[in-house]
Amino acid sequence: MHWKELLPIDRYCVQMKDKLHDTDRDTLTLLYQPLIGSLAYSLYLTLWTEAEYGMGEEKQHQSLMVLTGRPLNELFSERKKLEAIGLMSTYRKKDVDEAVYIYDLKKPLTPDGFFRDGMLSVFLYNRLGKEQYRKIRNRFTLERQDLDGTENVTRSFDDVFQSLHQSEMISYQEGLNVDHLSFRGEEEKGKAYDLKGKDFDFDLMLANLPPFINKQALEKEPIKRTITQLAFVYKVEPIEMSKFIQDTMIHDDQLDSEELRKLIQRRYRMIYSQDPPSLALRKQPEHLVSQKDTPTTEEEKMIHYYETTSPMELLENRSEGAKVPPADMKIVENLMLDYHLQPGVVNVLIDYILMVNDMKLTKGFADKIAGQWSRKNIKTVKQAMGLAKQEHKNRREVAEKQNYGGKRQTAGKQVRKERLPKWLAQEKENTKEKASKKTESQVDLDREKEELAKLMQQFEKDNT
After folding, report:
1. How does 97-133 read in b/e, with b if 16+ C-beta sit within 10 Å?
2. How confident is the model over 279-296, as a mean pLDDT?
3. Which helix (H) or strand (E) holds 404?
4. What is the DSSP code string of 252-304?
């Protein structure tokens, strides 16, 4: 559906406020790339180069497609990742019959700012694992001497410099246009990406707090942003968050963000896991939902289920509420991030593999099917179910050829029956019915031919 928002003939230009340096490249490569993937990382570097050497030149998106070797729908998808994580802002203006996009590239956070960010650092830890995360963090950490027991002998500004008189300052100010200088102010720190918190009812949390709590302090930035971040990462409901805030502020008029973080992390480890939360995409996007009306048939109900359920929830349901193994969670992440499959499509793929592979979700099997579906640009649940039916039909035909091509099953040997989803099993039954009808028709045709041959013989005998 990218064509509703972006066309190859639409023009764009790239701009930046600040120059990027080698440290920024290292931060992008080692810290951001594991979260956004190699394609989004490559797109950022391409736009970065255009911003430095393109001098604001307008081009068509078709030239970007040629330059990157990627179709427009992929570029659109990767651009949204850059926007979501705070590496780009996109502006659009209408120019007669076509649109012009302005891509405003942002500097990545500093390594220290990245590791201090309560959301990005947690997701990076989950993606890399404990050992790799520590190695990466240590790479950006500079060793410092312990300053205890030392004397600070640093000279102050006025120890070294003297003030200029007004007449001496004029010559310096003449060539300096302050309006053209852009600095990141204090209000922008820690806001490299936009987190709207639309799934967290902040007002409900405030309403559940007792009167003695300083609610005004909670509504100020960056405290409100910190609360929203923690609620998003650790899936804390508003009522529960209000209890954590009460415990943190019961003896203080201001919220201790670090203490709040520790309380929530302790609760997460006790209830869920020692491993940090994982970064997963949402449910099937609204524009790709095909089931608008109330489902009636079995297949329509399954389409509705796949479209309104996240892959993690589906795995939990298939395990009857048991904890999803980390290896399975990693497979799901790879299907969505590496193969760019939509959540509803991933649901169909997972269900199909579980049912034909004795309820085992194996990475090799998943990668094989995901690669095919990605190349076929499967976006909707209906498309995925249709392809799963065809895949199952092909597997069955191969098995039948092996069984009847000189490799028959030995007598008495148990053959495992596949537990298929109802929508897939129904397709199998329909195929059997068609084959059965075809066989009956062939028998009737043979019978008619035989009777016709007998009549011809009798006719020739009567005429001799």
Report:
1. eebebbbebbbbbebeebbebbbbbbbbbbbbeeeeb
2. 65
3. helix 381-404
4. -SS--HHHHHHHHHHHHHHHT-SSPP-----SS-GGG----SPP-SHHHHHHH
- Give burial (CB, 10 Å; 0-12/13-18/19+) of 50: buried
What does the alpha-carbon distance between residue 303 and residue 249 come to, in Å, rounded to a whole number? 47
Distance between CA atoms of 370 and 355, rounded to whole angstroms?
16
Q: What is the mean pLDDT of residues 7-31?
A: 88
Specify whether the CB–CB gap between 16 and 105 falls below 8 A: yes
CB 307 within 8 A of CB 284: yes
Give, as one character, the DSSP assignment of residue 201: -
CB distance 108 to 27 below 8 Å:
yes
For residue 400, with 0-12 CB atoms within 10 Å meaning exposed, 13-18 middle and 19 or more buried, which class applies? exposed
Task: State how far Cα 38 lies from the chain centre.
Answer: 13
Collect all residues with Cβ–Cβ distance below 8 Å to 384 and sequence separation of at least 6: 306, 344, 345, 348, 349, 373, 378
Pull the structure tokens for residue 54: 């393109």
Per residue in 70-93, pLDDT (tens digit) is 998 889 989 999 999 999 999 988
The whole-model pTM stands at 0.54
**pLDDT digit string, tens, across residues 393-438:** 887 777 777 666 555 554 444 544 555 566 766 655 555 555 555 4
| Lookup: tokens for 317 | 């349901």
